[in-house]
């Protein structure tokens, strides 16, 4: 893939991403008076955006690497899960509805997650590292319709045995209840079923980069920096 020019990144199609006091409408979309985010207008193609999708199985260290890249380059790091939790903590009407859906065991509509990402991008300047997204081919296709194609994708790869060991160790030291053998196996299987088809699609776009996450953290970071600078050369 041809790296983009080293010009300042700007939020994509700011007018289309404008948000004021968003709520979930009956279709599960974020909407604000005069600024619908999930409607027909948002389905129109948008120019490519300075987005790097960062994928990897649980325990691959992708979030740590995103944090390190963001600190080193000053780029934006967005995690859909963190955006959802932040909205809940703000106790907005949207956050309350998200919380109620989670407590009821319902899946938060993918469009809600996407609209929170769009809102975050609207209020900041890229490049953007999107951590753990897209999780399905449908989410990828919707993102591309509404936001444009991503600039690149980084996939942190780790063998199942090693990532299981990592997560079990993390559970022992952090006390996280979701880091037990049964839950880990389920999370890995979910990733393989949902996210690997996304990887297959992105491979065909010619801008996907695989990094061996079993290496020492600094070695992995060096590899991640090399990919990042291929598309966003340092000034």
UniProtKB/TrEMBL annotation:
This is AAA+ ATPase domain-containing protein. Keywords: Kinase, Nucleotide-binding, Transferase. GO terms for biological process: nucleobase-containing compound metabolic process. Belongs to the adenylate kinase family. Residues 48-183 form the AAA+ ATPase domain. It comes from the Eukaryota. It holds the Pfam family ADK. One of its GO terms (molecular function) is nucleobase-containing compound kinase activity.
């Amino acid at each position: 893939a041809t790296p983009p020019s080293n010009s300042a990144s700007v939020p994509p199609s700011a007018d289309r991403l404008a948000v004021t006091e968003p709520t979930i409408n009956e279709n599960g979309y974020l909407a604000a008076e005069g600024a619908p985010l999930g409607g027909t207008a948002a389905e129109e193609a948008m120019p490519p955006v300075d987005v790097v999708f960062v994928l990897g199985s649980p325990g691959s260290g992708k979030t740590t690497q995103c944090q390190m890249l963001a600190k080193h380059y000053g780029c934006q790091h967005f995690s859909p899960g963190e955006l959802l939790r932040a909205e809940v903590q703000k106790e907005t009407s949207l956050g309350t509805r998200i919380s109620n859906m989670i407590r009821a065991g319902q899946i938060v509509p993918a469009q809600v997650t996407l609209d929170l990402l769009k809102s975050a991008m609207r209020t900041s300047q890229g490049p953007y590292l999107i951590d753990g997204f897209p999780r399905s081919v449908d989410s990828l296709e919707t993102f591309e319709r509404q936001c444009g194609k991503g600039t690149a994708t980084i996939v942190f790869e780790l063998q199942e045995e090693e990532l299981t060991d990592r997560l079990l160790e993390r559970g022992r030291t952090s006390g996280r209840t979701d880091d037990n053998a049964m839950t880990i196996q389920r999370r890995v299987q979910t990733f393989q079923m949902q996210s690997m088809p996304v990887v297959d699609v992105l491979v065909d776009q010619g801008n996907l980069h695989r990094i061996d996450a079993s290496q020492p953290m600094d070695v992995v970071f060096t590899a991640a920096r090399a990919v990042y600078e291929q598309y966003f050369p340092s000034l």
